Structure formats: structure tokens, C-alpha cells
Recover the amino acids of this structure.
């Protein structure tokens, strides 16, 4: 029963984190005219992108904006910037991961329960 409880907790926490991240992203977007502020790190925003804006000194809630660089190590250069995320994005990603983990554990749960049953005997 402990495994079942762990799976349920994992699922509930995953849903909660996803909802929290979505709400954090929505708060910063509504406060900035329905556009997500982005710290560009020297690059330009794509033309015709109406859902993002530059992070400036007048931006409301700058800590919730896209300010976290997502980088990967490469052999060509030391690091390559692959994207920019916000705290809300990280919450959403973590929540989806935990929810998917709960699904995988749910699929594997009968295997664990059968193993315990066979170990103890009928």
C-alpha cells in the first residue's frame, strides 16, 4: 500500500506543479500586456512574435519572466544556448515529469505487487 500512496502523491504533486507553473506564467503575461518578457542574452526576438517582449526596467514581475538560460555542453563551443525558460516553465516541466513518472509507476505497480505476493506466499 505504501507504493500506491507514493504513486498517488507523485501524481498529485505533478498536477499541482503544472498548475502552479501555468498560473505563474499567466500572471507575468497579464501584468505585461499579454506578452512574456524575455531576457535575450544578445539575440533578437523573431519578427512577427506577438507573444514575447524584451525584458526592460519597466517590466512587471521580472523574476517570473523568461530569464533562465537553457544551455547544453557541446564540442564545438563550451556551451550552446538552446532556449530561455521562466520559473513557471520549470514548474510545468517538473510537474509533467512527475505526472509521467506516476503513470509509469502505475504501470509497473502490478509487477511489484506480484513480486511481493510471491515472496510472502499465498
Amino acid at each position: 500500500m505504501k507504493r500506491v500512496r507514493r504513486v498517488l502523491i507523485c501524481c498529485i504533486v505533478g498536477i499541482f506543479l503544472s498548475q502552479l507553473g501555468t498560473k505563474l506564467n499567466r500572471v507575468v503575461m497579464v501584468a505585461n500586456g499579454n506578452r512574456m518578457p524575455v531576457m535575450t542574452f544578445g539575440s533578437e526576438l523573431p519578427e512577427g512574435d506577438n507573444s514575447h517582449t524584451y525584458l526592460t526596467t519597466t517590466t512587471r514581475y521580472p523574476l517570473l519572466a523568461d530569464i533562465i538560460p537553457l544551455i547544453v555542453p557541446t564540442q564545438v563551443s563550451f556551451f550552446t544556448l538552446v532556449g530561455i525558460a521562466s520559473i513557471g516553465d520549470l514548474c510545468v516541466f517538473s510537474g509533467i515529469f512527475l505526472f509521467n513518472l506516476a503513470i509509469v509507476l502505475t504501470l509497473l505497480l502490478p509487477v511489484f505487487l506480484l513480486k511481493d505476493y510471491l515472496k510472502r506466499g499465498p
